């Protein structure tokens, strides 16, 4: 992980969804445009239908959309990875909402002249590659970023781990906790 022992969120999180959105063409996306995209993601997350979803500007070319899902009803589906990964209905609902936010950001970025976004969505310890438009050649970078952030397979505590080598612009902040936001139904997480 980012900084060795203790450099991750140590709380065990069973259900978390993280989307990593990276600008496809950094030459088209100047700093004002990047700020506008980050601002739009923050505004989108204030919408009532996206309650509990948070956004974080992770580096100069990457915005994270993330949420924690606490769903104890036991209802869910098994993943398609052959591993028998269980995903609750609530986790899938939140993942779909996060995809909607990402697609909106992708359209906004294209229409504003800053080029498209490569979007990778990670669900728990598995991940889904979302090709939001023409993402050939760069989508795997965003997908892998989301997958690393959702590395929760460790039964000894797990946690959301951040690889600082992957994000050289945030090397100094790698010890910071990734905010997990507001739980569905109210109540803030530490």
Describe the structure in brief.
The model is unreliable at 1-14, 73-86, 125-138 and 151-190 (pLDDT under 50). The two termini are 21 Å apart.
Query: What's the total number of strands?
Result: 7
Q: Between the first and last Cα atoms, what is the distance in angstroms?
A: 21 Å
CATH topology: Alpha-Beta Plaits
Average predicted confidence as pLDDT: 63
Shape: globular
Q: Quaternary state, please? A: single chain
Q: What is the ordering of alpha helices and beta strands?
A: EHEEEEHEEH
In CATH's first tier, which class applies?
A: Alpha Beta
Q: Per CATH, which architecture?
A: 2-Layer Sandwich
Strand content: 15-25%
Q: Low-confidence parts lasting 5 or more residues at pLDDT below 50?
A: 1-14, 73-86, 125-138, 151-190
What class would the helix/strand composition place it in?
alpha+beta
Structure description:
- The protein is an alpha+beta fold and 190 residues long.
- It has a single domain (16-173), classed as Alpha-Beta Plaits.
- Helix content is 25%, strand content 21%.
- A 5-stranded antiparallel β-sheet has the order 2-3-1-6-7, with helices on both faces. Strands 4-5 form a two-stranded antiparallel ribbon.
- A hairpin with a 2-residue loop joins strand 2 (54-59) and strand 3.
- Helix 1 packs antiparallel against helix 2 (89-111).
Describe how the helices and strands are arranged.
Blueprint: E1 16-23, H1 31-44, E2 54-59, E3 62-68, E4 76-78, E5 86-88, H2 89-111, E6 117-123, E7 126-130, H3 139-149
Antiparallel strand pairs: 1-3, 1-6, 2-3, 4-5, 6-7
Helix pairs in contact: 1-2
């Amino acid at each position: 992980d980012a900084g060795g022992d203790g450099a991750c969120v140590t709380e065990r999180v069973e259900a978390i969804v993280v989307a990593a959105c990276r600008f496809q063409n950094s030459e088209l996306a100047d700093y004002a445009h990047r700020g506008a995209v980050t601002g739009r993601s923050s505004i989108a997350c204030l919408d009532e239908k996206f309650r509990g979803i948070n956004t974080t500007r992770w580096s100069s070319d990457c915005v994270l959309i993330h949420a924690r899902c606490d769903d104890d009803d036991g209802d869910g589906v098994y993943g398609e990875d052959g591993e028998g990964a269980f995903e609750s209905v609530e986790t899938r609902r939140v993942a779909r909402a996060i995809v909607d936010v990402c697609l909106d950001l992708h359209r906004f970025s294209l229409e504003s002249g800053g080029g498209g976004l490569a979007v990778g969505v990670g669900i728990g310890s598995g991940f889904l590659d979302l090709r939001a438009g023409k993402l050939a050649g760069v989508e795997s970078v965003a997908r892998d970023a989301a997958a690393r952030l959702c590395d929760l397979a460790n039964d000894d505590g797990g946690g959301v781990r951040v690889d600082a080598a992957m994000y050289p612009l945030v090397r100094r902040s790698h010890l910071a906790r990734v905010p997990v936001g507001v739980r569905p139904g109210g109540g803030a997480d530490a």
